[in-house]
Amino acid sequence: LSGIYVLLLLFVAASDFLIGRLVYGCRERGRRGRGWVALSVVINVAILTYFKATDFFVDVVNNLYGSGTLNWESVVVPAGVSFFVFQSIAYVVDISRGEIKPLNRLSSYLFLLSFFPKMFLGPLVKAKDFIPQIEADGVSVTKADVGRAVSLVAGGMVKYAVIAKALGLLFVAPAFAGELGDGGFVALMAIYGFTLQIYCDFSGYSDIAQGVALMLGFRLPDNFNAPYHSATITEFWRRWHVSLSTWLKEYLYISLGGNRRGSFRTYLNLFLTMLLGGLWHGVGMTFIAWGVLHGVALALHKIWMRIVPGAKALGGDMSPLRRTFATIFTFNLVAFGWLLFTAEDMSVVGDMLSRIANNFS
């Protein structure tokens, strides 16, 4: 986030600060300003695509036409670009929907994008929740706030810097690299280990971000709610990285039509939303497969609720025994997804599954 990359953040801030005001002017004249919204989306998605996808496309071309066809240095991804780009798109869309008014000062909008506790891994905050905190006359931090903040930071550090790092360095990475043997039991435990690692990593960081922000007098939303207690895949996405799943729902799924255009379009929109969510995390076959898995799972769960009497989106109304089995199934489905998420390529996925199926000792 140093040197020339600061200019990227300044460009995104200045661009959407201006576009937001133009969209608001259109609304004042009775129009939605869709052209300006589209321009904001194009600019931000182009930035994200360049930094996230260039290396992938260069590799594809070189694999197809021979090494060296494209001589391109690896692109350095600026810290937090995925999050401040999504945050900026949401700001313009919220203005076009009439949910917020544009900020009056560029410095305030720059603060909204670059508030450092949330900038790198989230949570994504809604502009309508954060802008009133920016525009408040003063900042108030009570003793109770400090107490909760210290608790959040301490707990987050244990999850993020102790459990996640120890699991990754001492077990998960060596197991995936084959340094602990080629047994299927080790492979399965490595998948479960990464399932715990990625939760402690993301949720630990979110706790730290919440705690640091609270010490400064700003409140960020909760981002994780015991996601591995979920009894359905739909419930999982209401508990996992809540701010991201909410963003995908409100700004992608609903924009595609949501569930307003019939059953088939609903399933297709779910699939496309999760596919694009996978590509947001990284451009590659493993991330595409991860997005496809969750998109298909969500669509199938929608179909299940439609054809099975009494089926629910969440597991709260299930009997204890049924919820137990449903939770185990959902956990293993999510864990398989994390294998796709973390594997370097699909050959690693095939190798891990082969070890579990053929050499479980």
Describe this structure in words.
The chain is an all-alpha fold and 361 residues long. It has helices at 5-28, 34-65, 81-96, 106-114, 116-119, 127-135, 143-176, 184-215, 233-239, 242-253, 263-281, 285-307, 320-342, 346-358. The protein is built from 14 helices and no strands. The longest helix is centred in the middle third of the chain and has 34 residues, at 143-176.
Topology (elements, then pairings):
Elements: H1 5-28, H2 34-65, H3 81-96, H4 106-114, H5 116-119, H6 127-135, H7 143-176, H8 184-215, H9 233-239, H10 242-253, H11 263-281, H12 285-307, H13 320-342, H14 346-358
Helix pairs in contact: 1-2, 1-3, 1-4, 2-3, 7-8, 8-13, 8-14, 10-11, 11-12, 12-13
Provide the descriptors you would attach to this structure in a database record.
14 helices; 71% helix; globular; mainly alpha; 0% strand; 361 residues
| Rg result | 22 Å
Largest sheet: none
Distance between the termini: 46 Å
Low-confidence parts: none
The overall average pLDDT, rounded, is 91
**Overall shape:** globular
Tally of extended strands?
0
Strand content: under 5%
* SSE run: HHHHHHHHHHHHHH
Helix content: over 70%
The structure class reads mainly alpha
Number of alpha- plus pi-helical segments = 14
